[in-house]
Structure formats: structure tokens, C-alpha cells
Amino acid sequence: MQIFAVNGSMRAGSTNGALLATARAVAPGVEVYEGLGSLPHFNPDEDREPLPAAVADLRRRLADAGAVLFCTPEYAGALPGSFKNLLDWSVGSGAMDGKPVGWVNVSSSITGAAGAHASLRTVLGYLGTRIVEEACVHVPVTRHEVGADGLIHDEAIRARVAAALAALTSH
Question: 72 pairs with which residues across the strands?
Fold first, then answer.
């Protein structure tokens, strides 16, 4: 099953990106989306054909995926604006309706990015997704756990990522 993995961080070398790169390394069929920064600001007046190319590409990839895995940081107690923008562009398409979704939370902060993931749960409800609870996991990752190759080599972390991916594919 093709899993479309979406990084909610635009920071180069983020732990969210490292987690998704590691997911791609441990499981075949994981496609990591790299186009977050190319999406235009959401405008309902522009949510019509012809769509901006970046939006059409995003929607096609979402529609083609068997499941979606998110990995996003928290900014100011909520979802990053650029990531929320991606979700806003997804609303009108129906591409995620009924689609199994999950997320891996890599935050090592004291709050564990709880605000971002509560917001994500709410938005995914509006998108009509099927949240796979076993694929919604908190796996703290610190920068020192990311190797020079951009991957996480800790076997315990890799096992938890593989388990979340397996949960998604079993739905």
C-alpha cells in the first residue's frame, strides 16, 4: 500500500523530516511529500479549475495514496501555518474522504506538541478521514538522534515507526 507522508515542518534538517525519511527507509511504499513550501496561500475563490499546479499535484498524490501519515511540529501551541494551509487546500477535494490516516509526534518538549496534534485531529475530522489510533504515536526524537545521513538509526525508534506504518497498512 502506498503511504503518502507529509512533513509539517519547512525547516531543513528537522526531526520531523528525519522521521519521515527514516519511515521511507524502513518501509517500501512510503512517499514523502516535499512540496509544502510551493503551495500558494489558500483562497476559496481559487479552489476551482484550473487549480494552481502545486495544489493539483498535492490533491492527486493524496487521492492516489492508500493512507496518509503526518509528522508536524507545534508552533505557538497549534499547527504551523504552512501545514494548516496544506490541509485547507485538501478540504474541497474530497481526496482524503474515508482515507486511513495517522501521525507520528516527534516532539521532545514538555507539552509533547499536544496542541498541534489536537488541532490536527479536529481538522482531519472535517476532512472525513479514518484516524487509525494505532498509527498516532508519540516518538520523541532529539537532534542528536539524527545521523549525518538525515536518518534515525536508533532501533527502538525505527521499530515504533514501522509499527505505526503497519497499523496504517492494515486498515
Answer: none
Neighbours of 81 (CB within 10 A): 11
- Residue 70 CB neighbour total at 10 angstroms: 27
Domain boundaries, the chain: 3-169
Number of CB atoms found within 10 A of residue 69's CB: 28
- The strand pairing partners of 70, in sequence order, are 6, 103
DSSP 62-102: HHH-SEEEEE---BTTB--HHHHHHHHHHHTT-TTTT-EEE
Q: Domain 3-169 class?
A: alpha beta
Residues recorded for the chain: 171
Q: Report the pLDDT averaged over residues 154-170.
A: 97
Q: What pLDDT is recorded for position 129? A: 98
Could you tell me the three cell numbers for 142? 532529539
pLDDT digits (tens, 9 = 90+) for 72-90: 999 999 999 999 999 999 9
Question: Tens digit of pLDDT for each residue in 7-16?
Answer: 999 999 999 9
Q: What is the CA radius of gyration of the chain?
A: 15
Task: Encode pLDDT of 26-67 as tens digits.
Answer: 998 999 999 999 999 999 999 999 999 999 999 999 999 999
CA–CA separation, 117 vs 119, rounded Å?
A: 5
